[in-house]
Amino acid sequence: MSLLLECQKLDFSYQKKRVISDVTLGFDENEFVGLIGPNGAGKSTLLNLLMGLHPPEKGQAYISEHDIAQLARKNIARNISFVPQDVSIEYAFSVREIVAMGRNPHLGAFQVESPSDLDIIDRAMKKTDILTMAERRVDQLSGGERQRVFIARALAQETPILLLDEPTASLDLCHQLSLLTLVRQLCGEGLLAIAALHDLNLAARFCDRLILLDQGIVVAQGTPIEVLTKENLYRYFSIEAEVEVSALDSTQVSIKALHSV
Amino acid sequence: MILSRRLLIAMLLVLLGLVLAGITFGPVDISVHSMLKLIAQKFGWNAFSLNTSATQLRPWMENIIVEVRMPRVLVGALAGACLAISGAVMQGMFRNPLASPSILGVSSGASLGAILALYLGFASISVWILPGFAFIGAGLTLWLVYRISSQRGTIAIGTLLLSGVAIGALNTALSSLILALSLNNWEVGRMIVYWTMGGLEGRTWEHFWLLLPFALFGIGAVMFFARSLDALLLGETHASSIGVDVLRTRRYLLLITALMVGATVAVCGSIGFVGLVVPHILRLVMGPHHRFLLPASALGGAITLVGADLFLRTVFSEKAIPLGVATACLGAPFFIFLLVKKRGLIQL
């Protein structure tokens, strides 16, 4: 059986510096994967390569065995939605209009949204708790509100795959938890979600699988317990930390950073 | 959205009114009634023939209206529409409210091409040579400016404007050089100077038919990209992630706008700032949606040029002020206003 999303031997350089090297990974539906690693490890770049935003120097990425490099942008966008890192917007679009842009890959150039499209847009806003601000101007929202708008837009795209680049970076604790809970729940309904995450505790708590990147190389992957070991934290994140396995649920770990090294 | 639709309809009505006014008013006094009668005749309606006693329609009136005023007004409308919609597209795809055919050097590129065609004597070979050269000049300039300011699919805005200004200056300098070289050939020099002054003076039906296909094709083709332009306003990554092929879209749009600006400049010289001011004001009024902004810009550009031309012809009829001079006088201060406002010196 074919995997929903995979990449083989990806290489990518930026300004002659190797950012991604020899990355081979496979992902399937019903999975929430966390991409972790220190700053500059190549997490964002890997996400970009997985959605075919840049052509890789070497290697391929595939959606259900179709080479992404051969697929039209619109076709990719019907399969992969993306929540970028905080985007500033200077233009006076309303929240609803931004979310509606998620329907773009499903519509022809001169086609307007059908009632079922409008319904999908409404549901996406409801799920992300932004229905009450639907008519507000997006250039006047806070960073956290804007982030939820972009998540709603990605949901309106109705894709089997969702990529998120630091989705919790500008959210308060409440919205961090509700966002990741939502993604978790969608993964239960069949979604494949891959998120670059900074907060290791959140990653450990919500993800089924973690992939640890360092200098563009996959150095560890597996369940949070397998990846977030004392040694890995010391070696790749340069921290002395205590790793506690939950007494209630042996799959749950939490990290207490002591000091940097 | 309903508001935007109403605005579009209102603008269409204003444009129709201005076109009629532009045909009716001028140095030679022709009554509104004669004019309406003439139009009725042209369409084969005879409703007006009942009360012909009041005014006699003379052949010279028909000549002035059909051969002088109509093409002039209609060329003005098409040129304004092309310039303003090109400006709207450039502002959208470069994500910058300061982008426009004149600021990015595209108009001066088209001028340079056209002047070169006149200087080399190619322009007399076929009517398509002049717009062809203008298009090549516009296209090359736009391509150069785009290449200089884009890096890995993103565009540095400062570099974009500066390279536009620099290449625009180079275009102007080369145009002056050609003009200087051609001065010893009085006939060619006169032709170039006459053409450089631009405006709508003495435009004929030939000019209209030359411009019409570019305008129709350009406006239609640009509308095809309305949704993509909306997405591009939020950045390249955003646009790609919802299925916009950014590079391909940019390439097509560059080509289409170069065609429109090239054809416009070939027909009526360079008329600056319409492409900057009109879409900018409309964006403030009706929001950034290209589905409405693009047709509104076309209508707004047409209204501006037809209106400005009518104003100059009726109020300053003795002075013969070129249209390009008038639009620059209005547009340049507006551009400075935008710059200053962006820097926060003027609070609004």
Task: For this entry, give a set of tags.
heterodimer; A: about 260 residues; alpha/beta; Rossmann fold; six-stranded mixed beta sheet; 9 helices; B: about 350 residues; ABC transporter involved in vitamin B12 uptake, BtuC; about 75% helix
CATH H-tier superfamily of chain B: ABC transporter involved in vitamin B12 uptake, BtuC
Per DSSP, what share of the residues of chain A sits in E-state strands of 2 or more residues?
A: 25-35%
| Assembly form of the protein | heterodimer
The CATH architecture of chain A can be named as 3-Layer(aba) Sandwich
Main interface by residue count: A-B, 31 and 22 residues
The top-level CATH class of chain A is: Alpha Beta
Strand content of chain B: under 5%
How large, in whole angstroms, is the Cα Rg of chain B?
Answer: 21 Å
* Helical amount of chain B: over 70%
Identify the overall geometry of chain A: globular
Give the number of domains of chain B: 1
Kindly report the CATH topology of chain B: ABC transporter involved in vitamin B12 uptake, BtuC
Portion in helices of chain A: 25-40%
CATH homologous superfamily placement of chain A? P-loop containing nucleotide triphosphate hydrolases
Task: Work out the count of structural domains of chain A.
Answer: 1
CATH names the topology of chain A as Rossmann fold
Distance between the termini of chain A: 45 Å
